[in-house]
Amino acid sequence: MVRIKYIFYLAALILICSVQLVIVPFLSIGSVHPDILLIFVVYISLKEGQIKGTVAGFLSGLIFDLVSGGVMGSGMFSKTLAAFIAGYFYKDSEQESHLNNITFSAIILLAGTIDSFFHTIFGVGGIKIGVFFLLFEYGFFPALFSAAISLPLVLIKQKRDSL
To answer: Does residue 24 form part of some domain?
Structure first.
């Protein structure tokens, strides 16, 4: 039973990674695009715990780095770090409450800022802009977009659970 859950997570990870590479670029506003892979990693961190979420972050970053053709290791590091940070919000007794309200989007905003910031630092060579500009332009704004994408998921889950 447990192995089936992890096989499902791996299949979902591969599907989400494909969607991230093929469909999400069409949703971009300028250079800012949502990171649905991050939403999945934060979900795993809040549902399964910090250790399993960190492993999911590592695997998702590895798969994304392999299929995207980007700098190897930048996605692994940034997704692992984001999942580790999101895992701090895991509490066994409150796991459903974080997934059912706006706290989920706030955690995505925090983890996404960290993820996007470090992915840009390690994934782009020769950055000639200031750290604060980098933090907002390549860290906060993509995270805000990802958090906005996660809001409908939270509302759908709330509506489904109230029925």
So the answer is: no
